[in-house]
Design brief:
By secondary structure, the protein is mostly beta strands. The protein is built from 13 helices and 87 strands. The N and C termini lie far apart (104 Å).
Length: 1224
């Protein structure tokens, strides 16, 4: 007699007996008895502790599951839609406590396998009446659509409808009349979208056939109402051929084939579904307008998820090809609105499948969308036939471009996401289909599985070229053209598994975990098939026996199922939260959503730490709590015992900053410039590096004014403080003319010569004439030229009294010779001789070809009053030059910086650990760029005349010597490579040494080994280098500003992020939102969430600077954005600090170089050094705000750049003090 766990209380004994009698005589392990609690019940799990984390693949002859998803070659000769495969559904259809499996078939009949226990299954397809004969079945899912607590079956087909099969409770199913009859049905997802209690259905459609299978098709185009359109197919109207919306005719004559509209169906509660129109108001665009037409997309999968935690199921739809992914945010009442344009910055091109999980256990759902990028170098360089870079519009960054790699979205907690695919190491997982996050080793963090492979490697560029060549030789019949697809070989790939290593990084463990089957796998579903409380895996393979994987995890676990109120009997949409000391895990109960597949409705959590409680937030709004929880149990939680949710109280005081950009209404002007026509292999644009920003007192009224540099063709912005909390544009004739060149840096100079310094770059025009550095003065009609343009395009600008003569001198950094980046170039020091700036020839040799300087500052790192010169080189080192009484010598290696070669964009200084010594922080490219797909920890640039034609180019390669750039890119710069490598495959196996040959010896070499943005703590005899927090690594860092932004007495750090000037094949780096890092006083920092900081920047952020412009004792923030709005943030909540204004000697009236320290009678606090220029080509106010924290300082010590030291008593309650430098 077959034994089974006790049925749920509401399930009748008659039904339970009927389920048991189906297979009399089969013996399964006896399950433990259910123990009933208040609103829940549980039973103990039997867990094996003698195994290792991972999977065991079980053979068909032992399990009885011998299903093969067969597809004859003839079928996909004439219809390649079928190559998208089929899925698997998991659910306990007969209610006996053992999860069963349903496999969809294309040529094969569907199969339903009843779980007998002990990893044995019985084929009950015929009895259950689910064979689907003559159907090409694709997606499937078990779901209780009529609320009778029996899992029904929903099955999609290609062109033969979506079938709802109602469970009759007697081991069989009854078919309801199908719908979506003309749809190319793929995946499906179910949720209660209108909150009427039942499960509604979203069906994803692809197409039933495609123009690629109709080589003889004839299309006719015409212009209708001024718009080019396809008007007939094979001489028949679009309506007659079912082709409405099928084609888009471009103005250039190119025809795009579109997919079919998906379908949303509302459930009447009895399993009968009514379609919802896309154009009747249920779906709105980003601006809240009704859709004019349904989206004709190539849909592959969709998943419901409450993305914004408002209790309503939102919807993500994955679409193939150029069809954009659709992200629909539920507005309530069954209405969806497209997500905000800036909520997600980019998307995958070939979006196959999606899954959500809280990857970093911050309580927010992150997600992945999988695409087709290979992990293997050779495949990445041959699979290119459909991979085209997006066409980006200059100055537009709300366009969500598509890139062909897996996109991973980190939830920012403010309804926006940062795309972190490259950082996560999940960007490339081959031609992928079903992604699944699950905690395989039960350590509390979700790991990752994905199925891969394709019957034909249709991206192979060599085969594509061969086919095109064959077509040119003679005319081919339609059948011959169809059969050309078999030039492509099967793409047999391993399925992949990755372990969550923490820090949002994953490491491949496919072989270690036994999940590396080589074949072609499509749908995949999770289920606890042996009732041990972990999730096993079922996979539907193409033309091969299905795979079944037993989960061997030995770690403690907690399984949770839900008993929802009818008709949502499995609690779909409920969020389950499991809390333990130091670890909170949460998951949502979903139905369907997998690629062509659906899981068993059970959720599993790690229980390595004592569990404090389980909380279930039901879709109804009620909440269940289980407080007495032990590991190695399965809990079934009943909605009957739920209580109303507690009312949420308003949180906190609101954000630290408020956006005050409207006070300026300024936008940085920039003209588009094609850097790649001059250097075709240039790694990135250098023409989009501005603007810098500056705080200065232009009109000498004692209030902070604003200056913003301009790109070529624009005008610099100058805004005067109106002393009432606002700004007015200044009418300065000398600044009112359009600049012919990019202004790359600026300073407000207060010395023997004063005014606004603007540094211009001749990078774009490459002409060695005209001014490079100009000084603008309020009372002088024409600017004063301080430095002429020459062969070097300049970049950075900073001022200090480096020679100790009492006035401010200038450093001007060289960026590159136009057309020769990254060849090192020279920089210049301009010595101030009584108001006249002259080249300092003493340091000419020291600064000759010092590198490609991106940013610079002067800072006293040694503690001897004389400022050291610090350069951020891109690419290159953080270079430091010690100041020996006005003579500089390089001490880069001596201070510990000699081995850190990076893409250093910026550098700033502050006393981050409060010891009185000046520390540094530097901005780098981060760990979320396409460079992260590399074999080793380095990237090498060989640069020079690669082809012998006199053009300076850059050949990028991974540390192992494998070239990064694609073959067609290199051919543009080195055409003769075609003779060496006749095919993409030949090039894919080449190494840099082979490509360069003898020319390699004549080239410059840069080996980049540092990618993280860092903090460098000054230990007196050297610096300790450590990475900034994780969120600082997810986008390039440019602007850097140091201030005590929250007023706690400890310096914080603001980072301006992103870079949009990438080359076409290098994805835009846009994961940054502007990041405030809160200092801890020991040299460490923690990222402040956007909701707390209030800083939300979406553009290409550059220079930033700090000032208390409204004199409230709180540091405010100014941020420049390339070709975008200048951002001004007013600090509204920081504890008020002490405003300090220094009055120095005539040559340095604002005390640049002075160090300020608040103190008590017995101790001094952190040092604040006043600088003129730093971060990224920007300048802070000369009036600084010192945070008081919880201390009550009684004195202010000032170490002046002259060497004198003063102390000033601080009276209680004073808001601002003016300190004058003691007389000599």
């Amino acid at each position: 007699m077959r034994l089974s766990p006790s049925p749920p209380p509401i399930v009748s004994r008659l039904f339970a007996t009927a389920g048991l009698c189906l297979l009399a005589g089969t013996v399964a392990p006896r399950a433990t008895e259910w123990i009933v609690g208040d609103g829940y019940r549980y039973r103990a799990l039997t867990v094996s502790t003698n195994s290792q984390a991972g999977f065991t693949s079980l053979a068909a002859n032992s399990t009885g599951i011998g299903f093969v998803n067969r597809l004859a070659k003839e079928r996909y000769t004439t219809n390649q839609i079928y190559l998208n495969g089929s899925g698997v559904a998991a659910g306990d259809y007969d209610g006996d406590g053992w999860c069963d499996l349903f496999f969809s078939g294309l040529d094969s009949e569907n199969k339903l396998y009843r779980n007998l226990g002990n990893w044995r299954f019985e084929d009950v397809t015929a009895k259950a009446r689910v064979r689907g004969r003559l159907f090409a079945s694709t997606g499937a899912c078990f779901a209780d659509v009529n609320g009778d607590r029996r899992p029904d079956l929903v099955s999609n087909t290609v062109g033969q409808g979506t079938w709802v099969l109602l469970n009759d409770g007697q081991g069989g199913f009854r078919a309801v009349r199908p719908f979506n009859g003309s749809g190319g049905g793929m995946s499906m997802a179910l949720a209660d979208v209108d909150r009427d209690g039942d499960l509604d259905l979203y069906v994803v459609n692809y197409r039933t056939f495609t123009i690629r299978d109709q080589p003889g098709i004839k299309l006719r185009g015409s212009t209708v109402d001024g718009v080019p359109q396809v008007v007939s197919v094979n001489g028949k109207s679009l309506e007659a051929t079912g082709s409405v919306g099928r084609f888009t005719l471009k103005t250039n004559g190119k025809i795009l084939e579109n997919g079919q509209p998906d379908r949303l169906y509302l459930n009447d509660g009895r399993g009968r579904f009514t379609p919802v129109s896309f154009t009747a108001g249920a779906f709105l665009d980003e601006d809240g307008r009704r859709l004019a037409n349904p989206p004709y997309d190539w849909g592959l999968s969709a998943m419901f998820r409450d993305m914004n935690r408002d209790g309503l199921p939102d919807l993500y739809v994955c679409n193939d090809f150029e069809s954009p992914d659709r992200i629909w945010i539920n507005q309530g009442g069954g209405v969806f609105r497209a997500i905000d344009r800036l909520a997600m910055r980019k998307s995958s091109h070939f979006s196959m499948g999606i899954d959500f999980a809280d990857l970093n256990r911050d309580g927010l759902d992150d997600f992945i969308v999988v695409d087709m990028l290979s992990r293997e170098h050779t495949l990445r360089h041959t699979q290119l036939s459909n991979r085209k870079p997006p066409k980006l519009r200059f100055g537009v960054f709300n366009d969500r471009p598509q890139y062909s790699y897996n996109t991973v979205y980190l939830n920012n907690g403010d309804d926006t996401y940062s795309e972190i695919g490259f950082h996560s190491n999940l960007a490339a997982t081959e031609w992928a289909w079903t992604p699944i996050f699950m905690d395989i080793d039960l350590d509390g963090y979700d790991d990752f599985l994905v199925t891969t492979g394709h019957p034909l490697d249709m991206q192979d560029m060599d085969v594509t070229n061969r086919g095109e060549a064959l077509k040119q030789q003679r005319k081919h019949s339609p059948r011959e053209l169809l059969e050309m697809r078999f030039l492509f070989k099967p793409l047999v790939l391993r399925n992949l598994a990755f372990r969550n290593e923490g820090g949002l990084r994953f490491a491949e463990k496919s072989a270690d975990w036994g999940f590396d089957h080589a074949g072609i796998s499509h749908g995949m579903a999770l289920a606890d098939l042996d009732n041990d409380g972990d999730l096993d895996v079922a996979v539907n393979n193409f033309n091969e026996t299905a795979s079944l994987y037993r989960n061997n995890a030995p770690a403690p676990r907690l399984a949770v199922t839900l008993r929802g109120a009818p008709p949502n009997t499995h609690g779909v949409g409920a969020r389950i939260t499991v809390e333990a000391d130091g670890l909170t895990q949460s998951q949502e109960m979903v139905s369907g959503g997998r690629y062509l597949s659906g899981d068993e409705p059970v959720r599993v959590f790690a229980a390595t730490k004592p569990i404090q409680k389980i909380t279930v937030a039901w879709p109804s709004g009620a909440v269940s709590t289980v407080s007495t929880v032990k590991a190695n149990r399965v809990y079934e939680i009943d909605e009957k015992g739920a209580a109303p949710a507690a009312e949420e109280l308003p949180s906190g005081r609101g954000p630290l900053f408020e956006d005050a950009s409207q006070l300026l209404s300024h936008r940085h002007a920039e003209k588009a410039f094609d850097d790649f026509t001059r250097q075709q292999l240039l790694p990135k644009k250098l023409s989009q590096e501005g603007p810098g920003v500056a705080w200065l007192d232009w009109n000498k009224d004692g209030w902070d004014d604003i200056a913003v540099a301009s790109g070529s063709g624009g005008k610099p912005g100058l805004f005067l403080n109106d002393t009432a909390g606002g700004f007015e544009g200044a009418a300065v004739p000398a600044l009112g003319q359009a600049t012919p060149r990019d202004q790359v840096a600026l300073l407000g100079l207060n010395s023997t010569a004063s005014g606004l310094l603007l540094l211009q770059s001749n990078y774009e025009d490459a002409l060695a004439f005209g001014p490079a550095l100009r000084l603008y003065q309020p009372s002088v009609p024409e600017p004063l030229d301080l430095l002429p343009a020459g062969p070097v395009a300049y970049s950075a600008l900073c001022a200090a009294d480096y020679d100790g003569d009492g006035d401010l001198d200038l450093f001007v950094g060289g960026r590159c010779r136009p057309g020769s980046y990254p060849a090192p170039v020279s920089s210049v020091i301009l010595r101030n001789d009584n108001g006249q700036f002259v080249r300092d020839n003493r340091h000419e040799s020291l600064l000759r070809e010092v590198g490609s300087v991106s940013a610079a500052l002067w800072a006293d790192l040694i503690g001897d009053i004389r400022p050291e010169l610090v350069l951020a080189c891109d690419p290159g080192l953080i270079r430091v030059y010690r100041n020996n009484n006005g003579l500089l010598e390089e001490v880069t290696s001596a201070l510990g910086f000699g081995n850190h070669v990076g893409f250093w964009n910026s550098v700033c200084a502050g006393d981050f650990n409060g010891d009185g010594r000046i520390d540094l922080a530097a901005g780098n490219i981060g760990t979320n760029s396409a460079y992260e797909i590399r074999d080793e920890a380095t990237v090498t640039w060989h640069h020079g005349d690669l082809a012998g034609g006199g053009t300076h180019e850059v050949l990028e390669s991974h540390g192992t010597g494998l070239p990064i750039r694609y073959f067609h890119e290199l051919l543009r710069a080195i055409p003769f490579l075609r003779e060496m490598y006749p095919t993409y495959a030949a090039y894919a196996n080449a190494r840099t040494t082979d490509i360069l040959g003898e020319q390699k010896a004549a080239l410059g070499v840069v080996e980049i080994n540092s990618f993280q943005s860092v903090v460098m703590i000054n230990r007196g005899d050297g610096f300790d280098v450590s990475p900034l927090p994780l969120k600082a690594q997810l986008a390039p860092v440019f602007g850097m500003a140091v201030a005590d932004f929250d007023g706690d007495g400890i310096d914080d750090l603001f980072l301006a992020q992103n870079f949009f000037g990438t080359r076409p094949d290098f994805p835009r780096m846009d994961a940054g939102r502007g990041l405030l890092l809160k200092g801890n006083g020991t040299g460490g920092f923690a990222a402040m969430p956007t909701a707390e900081s209030g800083i939300r920047l979406s553009g290409d952020q550059r220079g930033c600077a700090v000032a208390d412009f409204d004199r409230d004792g709180r540091p405010d923030l100014l941020v420049g954005q390339n070709a975008a709005q200048t951002a001004l943030y007013r600090n509204r909540l920081a504890k008020r600090g002490l405003r300090v204004r220094l009055v120095g000697q005539a040559g340095n009236p604002t005390g640049v170089g002075a160090k300020l320290r608040l103190g008590t009678a017995t101790a001094l606090g952190p040092a604040r050094e006043l600088r003129s220029g730093g971060g990224f080509r920007s300048q802070d106010s000369a009036v600084t705000v010192l945070g008081l924290g919880d201390q009550s300082p009684t004195r202010l010590q000032v170490a002046w750049p002259s060497g004198r030291v003063s102390e000033t008593a601080i009276e209680k309650g004073v808001a601002e003090i003016i300190v004058e430098e003691p007389a000599p």
